Amino acid sequence: MIAIQNNKYYVINDLCQQCGSCVAICNKDAVKYIRDERTGLLNLSIQYDKCINCGLCENICPANKDTSISNIESYCQSKTYYLGHSKELLIRKNASSGGIARTIIIEGLRCGIFDGVYTLIKTDKYPFAEGYFYTKDNIPNYGDISNSIYHSVPLNLDMRRIQKCEKLLIVGTPCQLLSLSQFAKNKCHQLFSLCIFCKQQKNFLSTKFIARLAGIELKSFNTVRSYSYRGNGWPGYCTFDDKKVFWGVAALLPFGQKLWSVPGCDICGNPFGVADISLMDPWNIHKKNDYGSNVVIVHNTYGESILNLLKDYIELTPLSYKEVKSTLMLDDIESKNKLISFYQKRENKLKLQFIGKLDKYQRRILEIICLNIPKMPLMFYRILNKLIFNFRKLI
Ligand SMILES: Cc1cc2nc3c(=O)[nH]c(=O)nc-3n(C[C@H](O)[C@H](O)[C@H](O)COP(=O)(O)OP(=O)(O)OC[C@H]3O[C@@H](n4cnc5c(N)ncnc54)[C@H](O)[C@@H]3O)c2cc1C
């Protein structure tokens, strides 16, 4: 997070959401980063000999924006929901959930709904993806699109690759989109946005833990070999070379207990993002099977018309709010919102301060335990998960 005090901009790495926007926006090359060798996270700093105090970095930083949702129930009731998937079985099978994100990107470019798309392209070194600008002359193949990458990827580091175009689609997580939309609105006549629903990005230690569950010891992020977090059915597998672990098992502790989250994720209140369409997993309403699906959340008429134009490629079944509610896990979003002020260090109420501290320290202790003990039988992690007290319930 970029903040200002006494007319001087400075970085609070403890609240950084790892989008990379501040580095990309600076015309003077004054925001620098080094990647932390243990966590794989960007450690940002401002070079005061180059900084001209223009404030662009602070202005674009998503961590500075209020993303809290005050009434989650009425927010969610106002949306339109579908259960959906790509009509191509192989795309469904290999994608993160139902392959709708990649279908919108690729078929949207092919059909001329967009003439530019900014999203991730795969790379061969950590974090294994970077921001890339696709056009109708440069349409990716389905296999070129990355599945969900849960360790943080600073998508916006490369946002200057976006070229002027008529109809631009930006694809990213809520924090990435907040800054991207601000940057990209002057690059096009019409801006569309597709949000990858996200409650938390992870640091490398989460990947290391998941790799251990799969039977591989990763020494550092430089030694990560080929991997894929999702795909191969739903909810799919985490694959490291020839070893794999079922996603339901891999996600149990890190995601369920919010371990190894990017610090700035604690102050993000809106996992749906500000977008035309958001995509998420159909937890609790879709059974484990060979082919995935998405829950599709439509925020406005632009979202509705994109889906309508792509109806030859995407199968959609309307879902009522009642049908989708168990997927949304509103309690979790609500309690996260209540703790934002604690993580921003502006909470005065003793009860919230107390719960916040318990939540934070329990996570730290679990992280230490999980990383320092050898791989245990699955039952151990299941029991551990059951024993953990959810302090957030007390809010
Ligand atoms: C960090 C993260 C956390 C998530 N948390 C949840 C959750 O708590 N609950 C839930 O229901 N769903 C969550 N999701 C969304 C879910 O995993 C799927 O990404 C979503 O359902 C879209 O599936 P798909 O098959 O349509 O995507 P695909 O067709 O497989 O396409 C994936 C798209 O996501 C983009 N992408 C992948 N990783 C990243 C990244 N790190 N940053 C930016 N863009 C990325 C790719 O470039 C591609 O455009 C999360 C995703 C991410 C990346």
Distance between the termini: 26 Å
- Percent strand: 15-25%
Major beta-sheet overview: 8 strands, mixed
Order of helices and strands: EEHEEHHEHHEEEHEHEEEHEEHEHHHHH
Ligand types: flavin-adenine dinucleotide
User: In terms of per-residue confidence, which ranges show pLDDT below 50 for 5 or more consecutive residues?
Assistant: none
- Structural class, judged by helices and strands? alpha+beta
Query: How would the global form be characterised?
Result: globular
Number of strands: 15
- The level of helicity is 25-40%
Radius of gyration: 20 Å
Strand order of the largest sheet: 7-6-8-9-13-14-5-15
Summarize the structure.
The protein is α+β, with helices and mostly antiparallel strands and 395 residues long. 32% of the residues lie in helices and 21% in strands.
Q: Would you mind describing this structure in some detail?
A:
Helix 8 packs parallel to helix 14 (378-387). Strand 6 (116-122) and strand 7 (129-135) form a beta hairpin. The strands form four sheets. Strands 7-6-8-9-13-14-5-15 form an eight-stranded mixed sheet, with helices on both faces. The chain contains 14 helices and 15 strands. 32% of the residues lie in helices and 21% in strands. It is globular, with a radius of gyration of 20 Å. With 395 residues, the chain is α+β, with helices and mostly antiparallel strands. Residues 95-102, 105, 119-120, 145-150, 153, 155, 171-173, 176, 196-199, 201, 279-281, 283, 294 line the site of flavin-adenine dinucleotide.
